[in-house]
Structures are given as C-alpha cells and as structure tokens.
C-alpha cells in the first residue's frame, strides 16, 4: 500500500482515491519528515487538471493539504466547495495588505498543515517563480515540502524538503535539484525554478 501522512491507516475514502489515481496511471509520492507544518510549492503547474490530480493525491495519502485565497473567493455558491477541499480564506485588509504575514499566521495557528502554493503564478511560461511562498515559510519558521506534478512519469506528491535559510539562491538550487527531470502536462509552459533577480 502507498504511504500516508504520518503513517495514518488508510480509510475507505483514501483507498478509493488511491484506486482512482492508479487507474489514471498515477503513483502518489510522500517523502517523510518529522514536522507537521509546511509550505508546499507545487510545480510544474501548466494545466487546470493539475488541481484534480493534486486533490486525489491529498485524499489518497490523507495529507492535510490546504491552500489560501482571497476571502471573496469563498462566497456563495463556491465557498462551501472551496472549504471542503482545503481552502482557507484570507482577508488581506486585516493585515494591512501583508499577505505573507497573514498566511504565516495561519500556518503558526494550525496543528498541522501542508500549505500548497503554485509558485509559478501562471499556467503560461514565465521567467521566474514568485517568491511569496518562500517568505511565508521563512516567517512561519517551517520547511518547504517540495511537491511535484510530474506528467512524464505520472508521479505526484512531496519529493523532498528544503529548510529556508534566507539565502534565496542557495535554497532555490536545492528546489531545482529535487524537481530535476519533472515535467508538467505542457512542458513548454512550465517556468524554471529560479527566483526573480534582485533589482539594482
């Protein structure tokens, strides 16, 4: 049987989700770590169908996956669904517009959380990853759970961990190493895992 979060026993729901993944040709991955709170950059994100692959991985492995979004996205009629699949509304106005600080607070309050972030910021190719996820982890003092959506090998899940040190370039080099060879559904649209160069 495939791994589950903190070796929790499989449930009927997780077994059904695992069967669905396997029937679609996917293998779930879940590298182990002693921690219980993580920011999880998930890449490459090149297609809407990545959401469903990730959702079935969450169910199959019983991983406490969550994501954050503007509070306006959680209004009727989609609000109930968004919360049911792990969404957490964030009102930026309550933190004076400091989204990173607001998310770091959510992480610190959680008993356990794997906060999924799409660092590419777009399903089209860009030059660099956005770095908000990195500073969320740094401020919350939690590791990065690097998560792959590998359509070439049909593998999905956490492939390893990086502890943010504040050295952005060195830490991104570790992320690239963990994602080496990973391809999105549309490889020509994936963004390389490099941070935006410092201005000046």
What level of helicity do the residues show? 25-40%
Category from helices, strands and their pairing: alpha/beta
The number of helices is 6
H and E string: HEEHEHEHEHEEH
Main beta-sheet strand count, sense and barrel state: 7 strands, mixed
Overall structural domain count: 1
- Average residue-wise pLDDT: 89
Count of distinct strands: 7
Shape: globular
Low-confidence stretches: none
- Note the gap between the termini: 52 Å
> Widest sheet: strand order?
1-7-6-2-5-3-4
Strand content: 15-25%
Q: Rg, please?
A: 16 Å
Short description:
With 200 residues, this protein is of the alpha/beta class. The protein has one domain (27-186). Helices cover 31% and strands 20% of the residues.
């Amino acid at each position: 049987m495939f791994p589950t979060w903190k070796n929790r026993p499989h449930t009927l729901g997780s077994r059904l989700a695992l069967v669905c993944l396997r029937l679609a040709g996917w293998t779930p991955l879940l590298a182990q770590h002693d921690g219980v709170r993580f920011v999880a950059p998930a890449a490459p994100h090149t297609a809407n169908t990545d959401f469903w692959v990730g959702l079935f991985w969450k169910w199959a492995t019983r991983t406490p996956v969550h994501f954050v979004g503007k509070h306006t996205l959680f209004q009727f009629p989609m609000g109930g669904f968004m919360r049911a699949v792990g969404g957490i509304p964030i009102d930026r106005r309550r933190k004076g517009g400091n989204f990173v600080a607001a998310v770091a607070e959510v992480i610190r309050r959680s008993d356990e959380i794997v906060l999924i972030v799409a660092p590419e910021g777009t399903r089209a190719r860009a030059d660099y990853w956005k770095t908000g996820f990195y500073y969320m982890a740094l401020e919350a003092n939690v590791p990065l759970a690097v998560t792959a959506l590998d359509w070439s090998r049909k593998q999905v899940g956490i492939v390893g961990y990086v502890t943010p040190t504040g050295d952005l370039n060195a830490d991104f080099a570790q992320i690239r190493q963990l994602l080496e060879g990973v391809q999105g559904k549309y490889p020509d649209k994936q963004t390389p895992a490099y941070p935006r160069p410092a201005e000046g």
